[in-house]
Amino acid sequence: MPCPMFLLEDVTKERHATGGAPAFQLEVPLFRVQTGERVALVGPSGCGKSTLMDLLVFTMRPTASHRFLFRHQPGSEADIGALWHDDAVDALGDLRKRNIGIVLQTGGLLPFLTAGENIQLPRRLTGRTDDAVINTVIDRLGIRHLLGKKPGKLSVGERQRTSIARALAHDPILVIADEPTASLDEETATETMSLLTDLVERLGVTLILSTHDTRLVERYGFRQAQHDHRPSGGGHPAISRFWYDA
Amino acid sequence: MTGRGEIPTVFRLSLADYRHEWQLSVCLIVALVAVLAPLFILFGLKSGLIDTLAGRLIQDPHTREIKLVGAAKLNDEWFGAMRSRPGVAFLVPSTRSIAATVVLRNPANSAFWTTAELIATAAGDPLLADIPGAEPAADQLVLSRAAASRLNVKAGDRVEANLSRQRHGQSEVVTFPLTVKAVAAEAAFDRPGAFAPLGLLIDLEDYRDGVMVGHRGWEGSAPEGATRLFSGFRLYARSIHDVAALGDALRAQSREVRTKAAEIATMQDLDRNLGTIFWLVAAVAGLGYSVSLGANLWAGVERKRKDLAVMRLLGLRTTSLVWFPLSQALVTSLLGTAVAGAIALVMAGLLNHLFVISEWPDGVTCLILAPHVAVGLVATLLSTTIPAILAGRRASRVDPADSLREV
């Protein structure tokens, strides 16, 4: 069996209330994602999707982890648990910068750059010079006429398409999309999701999506991570569990 | 891209944000200009006035003069010892002033005449320093401007000197020709007078005392004693800083002297006090601006928390993000100092035009030089760097996960 892109075993994250006792606990007994998969984290607000997304983009330190591996190129794995243990925040940032594209709920574009400059930023940071892929992405998303505009002049849907272009601009192996359609009307959401899934499939990019909309999962062929939730009570914190294995 | 390689990118991002929020940026620059321009002008006024005062004191040889009050009896040994003292720039004996007064006439037109006080001079006379080779030879004079005007003569002309005395109850007069070597500047001696070699003054004093002056054919009694005693001197210190010490040395010999030491001390006190006031004002203003800029940058970091989080999410390193507010502070410092310097220079020109110091045409009221602006820039950079780094550290600690949630 080939080594998966992500392998998390017995990873937990506790969030503490002001008093100090754990108020919420995310448990990930197993999360194994293969290259090219489309995985959806589905659940209502507060179920721990965002916490798991934070862990997957290396912005949140796990409380404990048995194994937390990320294969960023064939035969080369990064031990994320060890990097967190060594407090190697910049090394984790480098891994994210080179390998992961991120789509945020309302785009997360920098307001002081034009759409084109926003798209170019990850390419500049990773030293990419080949324009062929990004030109294809821009044309496919139909945003070439928007490249000179600042995000403040774009509609929510245009911002989201620009955000998708930025996420794919540096040729990542993985795109993480956090509720990418939550702010869009149904028609725009459908169009945006179609473009996103079409592009990641064409480019062979793995996609992990968080959403509260189960219809998206079915319509666009995502495989859904398993999830259960136990509310707090009786002195124990709320516990949310996500697990996934293709 | 390494952390160091990211810095130009962060600098570009920071400038893009600076341009995007140009109204806030202009406010930051205006705030700096509002502090810095008055400081430049204040410093320029301090420099200009002190420079002019000090320049006048330093360049005016009268400031360095130590005047003897009353008459003394000074021999060559005393003059030799005095000349060897450090701090003495010029020392020449002088004769009694009553004996050194002559009537000068224009031989071409006797209607032009004046009573003139002859002043002993020698090589290196500070009062004649601006006339190269002005030292008069025997029977030559350097006339004061007032004397030259009354006599209607110029350099190279001849004048006639009349010297009178009472001897054995009879009035006697001698007349002898002198050549005008040069005409001194107005500031050298503002009354009718003439600078003359010491030998001529000794001859005049001897004649007045009824002593024979053989080489001029002036009759009189034989000179008494081998050692000549002079009643006074013209003494100039090397610099304004030597005046007080020379005055004290002469007072220690029980000689009453008059100096401008008090005026010099006043100027030095003024310089020191104005300097202290300026630096106090500058320190308070600089600290105030520094705190204000720090608060602005800090607020900016809080306001742009989401953008900074996105930058961290895109992989910019913590150390690189310190440069985000720091770059903006540096640009504010550069632009603010340039604008403040330009405004201050225009104001300095205006002040110098409005308040001309009539007694000192070369002096300026407000003196701002390029090095002053450079010092202002360095001080501004230093005072803005610390708050900017603090804000930058704040920026570098923004959690990239914030961008995932604060949407």
Walk me through this protein's architecture:
The complex is a heterodimer of chains A (246) and B (407). Chain A has one domain: Rossmann fold (3-Layer(aba) Sandwich), CATH 3.40.50.300. In chain A, 34% of the residues lie in helices and 29% in strands. Chain A is built from eight helices and eleven strands. Chain A has helices at 49-56, 80-85, 89-99, 115-126, 132-141, 156-168, 186-203, 214-219; strands at residues 6-16, 22-33, 38-42, 64-73, 76-79, 100-103, 174-178, 206-211, 223-224, 226-230, 238-245. The model of chain A has no long low-confidence stretch (mean pLDDT 90). In chain B, 37% of the residues are buried. Chain B has two domains: 3-59 and 266-405, no CATH class; 64-259, no CATH class. Chain B is elongated and about 120 Å long. In chain B, the strands form two sheets. Chain B has a six-stranded mixed β-barrel. A four-stranded antiparallel β-sheet of chain B has the order 2-9-1-10, covered by helices on one side. In chain B, 52% of the residues lie in helices and 16% in strands. The chains are: A alpha/beta (246), B alpha+beta (407). The A-B interface holds A 50, 53-54, 57, 59-60, 89-90, 93-94, 96-98, 102, 104-106, 108-113, 117, 121-122, 124-127, 150, 178 and B 1, 3, 6, 9, 13, 16-17, 19-21, 306-307, 310-319, 399-401, 403-405, 407.
